[in-house]
Amino acid sequence: MRTPDRRIVLGLHRSRHERRQLIAALDLGITGIDTAFNYHRFTSHTSLANVGRGLLDRFTISTKVGFFPGHDQAEHSLAPASLLEALEQTNRDLGRAPDLVFLHNPERSLREAAPDLARDTLAQACAAMEEAKVRGLCRAWGASAWHPSPLLHAIDPTVPKPAVLMIRCGLFVGFHALKDAASLAERWSDHTTQLWGMSPFGGNANNPVWSRFDARVFLRNWPDHLTQMQAAFRTAFHLPHVNTVAVGTDDPTHLRDLVDVLSCEVDEQAVVQYRNLLHHKAQPQPA
Fold it and tell me: Which of 36, 50, 105, 200 is the most exposed place for a label (fewest CB within 10 A)?
């Protein structure tokens, strides 16, 4: 078993929720699990408790609340009562309090709201999360945003700051998303706030783009056997700069590859040049 490394958290978004997956993670030193109230058709917490019996106390668990069962599809809400009720159920289903709970894509309920309503809605949701922490329903709370832009108009100094911000990371994140993520981190964090990344492969680790683009150019002195997937994953920690990346896989070999590449050094100058290229391509082109 390797020394624990908190830079990788095992994501369960598309996971089959198997015990061997948890055992493989522990053997590789991965001691964090990330899931959500709505994952696995709203059964992720109970499934995790079942397959992880006797193992879960060795993990820190982060989850998310914000999506709820609807008539035809999941519905999003930041209503404090709904968030707290979901967290109470989460505690029952897991058999323990999660270590961290994210507001799940809060921008979904804010993007069409007037600025004043958006600020009030977010402030009340954050207050509910603070209440949940006081009540022992979680140890800390954060916010997970796929599109940070709507949040920028809802934050003011009175809104409590999350312990962790989770945003998209990696080579599939465009210039404007990187800029919005940086603005969100600047405006809605303090010196204790951690920044996590998610979806480092843009939702598809087997995307054919990796056969046409050599991600290894972002690394220094990389070994000959290094794969494009490994290089892309290591680079994701710098687009934007994040402390931890949540990544999902049911394949222990894939997981081992991701752990192994953490020892590689990223070429910061290459990342800066890539950011500059994204900036240039995002500018309006002359007619």
Answer: 50
